[in-house]
Amino acid sequence: MSSLKLLSFLKLAPQCLRHYSETSFLTGTSSQYIEDMYNAWLKDPSSVHVSWDSFFRNTSQGLPQPYHAPPNLAPSKGALVSQIAAVATPPQTAPLDERTIEDHLAVQAVIRSYQARGHLVAKLDPLEIMFNDKTTTTVSQTGSPPEEILRTFRLENLDKVYKLPSSTYIGAEGEKKLPLREILHRLELAYCRHIGVEYMYIDDLEQRDFIRRRMEAPGVLNQSTVQKKLTLTRLIRTVEFENFLAKKWASEKRFGIEGCDMFIPGLEQIIDKSTEHGVEHFFLGLSHRGRLNTLANILRKPLYQIFNQFVPLEPADLGSGDVKYHHGSHTQRTNQLTQKHYKVTLLANPSHLESVNSVVLGRTRAEQFYKGDDEGKKSLAILIHGDAAFSGQGVNYESYGLSYLPHYTTHGAICFIINNQVGFTTDPRFSRSSRYCSDLGKVVNAPIFHVNADDPESVIHVCNIAAEWRAKFHKDIIIDLVGYRRHGHNEADEPMFTQPLMYTKIKSMASIGDKYSSELLKEKVVTKDEIKHVKDDYNKLCEDEYVKASKQTQIFIRDWLDSPWSGFFEGKDPLKVTPTGVPEATLAHIGAKVSSPPPPNLDFVLHKGITRILNQREAMVKNRQIDWALGEAMAIGSLVKEGVHVRLSGEDVERGTFSHRHHVYHHQTVDKMTYQPLGDVFDAQAPYVVCNSSLSEYGVLGFEVGYALANPNSLILWEAQFGDFYNTAQCIMDQFLCCGQAKWMRQIGLVVLLPHGFDGMGPEHSSGRPERFLQNCDDDPDVVPPPGPDFAIKQLHDCNWIVANCSTPANLFHIWRRQVALPFRKPLILFSPKNLLRHPECKSSFDEMLEGTEFKRVIPDSGPASQDPQNVKKLILCTGKVYYDIMDAFKKKKVGKEIAVTRVEQLSPFPYDLLKTEFEKYPNAKICWAQEEHKNGGPYLYVLARLNTLLNRSREIHYIGRAVSAAPATGTKAVHLKEVEMLANEFVAL
C-alpha cells in the first residue's frame, strides 16, 4: 500500500474496526481484512459489498458514521482500535442511512441460512414421509423463507434490488444485482429441491466455495441429451435385471435394489467421472443390498455365473463357498467415452454389514503404496452402506477415523449410502439418535449430499460433484441416496407387519425406470422405440445367459476371487518351503545397525534409555546372541534385504507396548524429528513401515487384512496392545481370517501378534484366549494325518490358519520368515510374550538362525533327563512362557533327571509326528500337559483330544494348571502369587 493510501486508511481505521466489530457475519483477521477490502474499493467500488461501499464513500467525504460500541468488545480488538485511533481521530459528521446497510446484511444472512439449513426443507424423500417433508413453495405463498431456513425475517419488499455478495454464486455471468424475490427463488432451486447439502461446517473456504459453485450457479443441473440417454439406459438395465431375477426365482432372497435403483447409474457415473481424473482402480465395499446388481451392471460379471448361484450346484473346487450376495469379484473394463481402461474390485463381505469397510481401505492403501501413488490419484475406495448400518455400526467410526492418518489414509473415499429408511424392521426414528444417518461424516469434515433417489438427474449431478471433489481435494465425501425398499428386508419378507403405512404407499409408487422414461419421452429426448430396444436387448442377454447357466453342472468358487495374485502360485511346488536360515554376515550387519545410534551427521539427540538399550544390544551381538527384540529385527532386516516389504501396525508398535522394540527413535529436542534404524539397513532394500495406529482394533485389523490381500510377497503384521484386545476385532477374526479361504478362496498371510502371559496383571491383561483360536482350527481331532516326508508342509497347506506360541527369539525369527517362504499363504496367530522380552534365559544364538536351520515345531528336552530317557518318570508338555516358569521351579527345588520338558511351539497344525517320537523316547514317563491358563482355557482341551487320538488312549494325559474359571485370570496379586506357588509344586511333583 502506498504511503498516501496508508494515511487514508489509517484515518478510516477506527471506524472501520468499529463497523467490522458489529458485522458478525464476517470472519478473519480484522485489520488485514479491512485493509484488503479498502484497497479493492479504491480500485473498483463495486467490488465490495454495498454496505462497505457506502461506508468508505461517506467516510472519505467527511460524513459521520453512526457508532455504538459493542457490549463485549474483545480486549485485543479494543487495543488495536486504540492504537489506530491514536494516529487519527475520525471526523464527526452527518448521519448515514443505517437501514440500507442493515437490509444488505440481512440479505447476506438469508443467503447463509439457505446454504447452512436449506437441506432441512429439501424434498428428499420420494415417499414424502421422512421428517414430514416440507414443500418448497413457502416463499411464493408467504413472501418469506420457511421457518427452518431463517427464524426471523425483516425484509418485506421482495422487489427491492440487492447487490449479490461474494459468498454466493446464484448470479449468472454479468449479474451483480437481483431483486430479493429472485434471490430467494434461486436459493430454493439450489438448496431446497431434491438435493440437500450439508457443508457449512467445513473450515476451508476453498472447499466451501467449490460446493457453492456446483450447487448455486444457474443451470448447473442441466444435463446433455447424451447424458440423459446414458442415465436412462443404465437405469433400465438396473430395473430389468431385478425384474428378471424376480421372474425366474420369485421366492429366492436376492436383496434387490428396487426403490434405490439410481444407485447403480450413480455409481457408474462416479466411476466414469473419476477415470477422467486418472483413477485406474476402484475398490468397492458393499453389503448384500444391491450386490448382485452391482456384479451384473458395474463389474459386468458374466450373468450365467450369477444365475448359477440360484441353483443347487456342487462346487468344483475346495471350500465351503458362501451365499450369492456375499461373494466378491474383480474385472477390467473400458470407459467407452474416454477409452480409458480401469479395474473394479468388489471385495467379498459377510452379513456383518460394515465389516468390509476397513478392509477396502487397507486394500486401497496397499495398492497406492505399491504403485507409488502418494496422492491417491490412481486408486479410489468407494464404501457403500445401508442407512441403519452406517449410523449403527461402530466400525464405521473406526474406519473413518483412519481417513487422514499418515500411514492409513487413502486420500479420500467416496461414501454412498443406500438409504431405504428402515433397518431390517426398525423405523429410523428408533434406530439412531441423530437427524441423519450420515452425521458421522461430519467427524472428518466430509460434505454430505442428501439426494432424492427418484430424481435421476439430481443423483447424477451429485455423483459428478463427488468424483470432482475427491479428485481435487483428496478428502472424504458422502452421498445419502434417500429412497425406499420396495420389498421387505428380503424378497420373502412381509414388511407390512412393521411398516404398514410406508408399504401401503410403496405399493402405489411407480418404478423410477417408468417415471424417468416418461419424463424423457415428454422432453423428446428418447422415443418409445428406443426405450423398447434397450429393454429388449437386455432381456435377451439375460435369457441367453440363463440358458447357458442351465447347462452348467458345477460352480467354481475361484470365479469369485476379488484379489487374485497373478503369477504367485504358478510354477511352484506347493509342498516346498524356501529355507529360512540366513548367512551370519547378514545377521551381524543387521545387529550392528540396530545397536548403533543414528549417524553423527544427523546430530540426533537420543533418549538416555535408548542409548543404554543400544549398548546392551551391541554386547549381545558381539556374543552372537539375540533377545526377543533382536529376533524381530533380524527377521525384518533379512526380509527387506530380500526385497520383501514389511509392515507392522497397531497401537504403540513403534516403541512396543512393553518398551522393548524401539523401531523409531524420537529426537529429544526437535519435535517430529525421528530416525528409523531398520529403514536403511541395506542398499536398495524393500521398505519397512512401522506405524502406531489409532486406538482401534476392529478397524485397524480389518485395514491390515485388506493391506495383506494386495501382495503375497510381503509380511504384514498387526500387534494387539494386549492379547485380549483382539476381542473387539472378533468379527474380522471370524469372518475374514478364520474362514476367508473356505468361503471365498482367498488366502492371506497376515500375522496377528497377541501378547500373552500370566504375570499378575489381572483378567484383562493376561490371556490372549488361545482356546478360541484353537477351537476354530479345522483339523479333525480324531484323525492323525498319514505320515510322510512332507507331513509338516502338507499340514500347513491344508489348515485354515496357524496357531503358535514361541518360546525362543530364534523360533520367532524363523516363523516370521516362514510366512513368506511358504508357497501359499495362511494367517498366523502368534502368542507373543511380555516378561520374556527381557528374561535373562530367553536368548538365542546366531547358530540357531544360520543357513540350514528352520522353525522348530517342537523343542525336545535337552537337559539331563534326555540323556537317560528310560528312567524319566514324568514328561511335561507345554507351550510358550510357562516353560521358563517350569525351569525356574526345577532350579529352586533342585529337580534332577526324573522329569523331561518338551515345548510345543506350533499348536496348530498339531505336530503329531514329532510328539510321537517324544512318547516313544520316554516309554515309562507319566505324560502331563502343563499350562498357566485355567483348565477351561488355554490349549489344554485342544491338545488333550489330539494326544488321546495319537496315543489311542493307551497312556493317560494328566493336567497341570489352574482350575476352571469364568474370568481369564485373578485380579488379586496375592491370589496370583499363591497360584504360581501351587503350579511350581505341581511341576516338580512326581
From TrEMBL:
Localization (cell): Mitochondrion
Major location category of this protein: mitochondrion
GO cellular component entries: mitochondrion; oxoglutarate dehydrogenase complex
Broad class of enzyme this protein falls into: oxidoreductase
Molecular function via GO: metal ion binding; oxoglutarate dehydrogenase (succinyl-transferring) activity; thiamine pyrophosphate binding
Domain Transketolase-like pyrimidine-binding: 626-839
Biological process according to GO: glycolytic process; tricarboxylic acid cycle
EC number: 1.2.4.2
Cofactors (names): Mg(2+); thiamine diphosphate
Keyword terms of this UniProt record: Glycolysis, Magnesium, Metal-binding, Mitochondrion, Oxidoreductase, Thiamine pyrophosphate, Transit peptide
InterPro entries: 2-oxogl_dehyd_N, 2oxoglutarate_DH_E1, DH_E1, KGD_C_sf, ODO-1/KGD_C, THDP-binding, Transketolase-like_Pyr-bd
Similarity section: Belongs to the alpha-ketoglutarate dehydrogenase family.
Its job: The 2-oxoglutarate dehydrogenase complex catalyzes the overall conversion of 2-oxoglutarate to succinyl-CoA and CO(2). It contains multiple copies of three enzymatic components: 2-oxoglutarate dehydrogenase (E1), dihydrolipoamide succinyltransferase (E2) and lipoamide dehydrogenase (E3).
Matches recorded under NCBIfam families: 2oxo_dh_E1, PRK09404.1, PRK12270.1
Protein name: 2-oxoglutarate dehydrogenase, mitochondrial
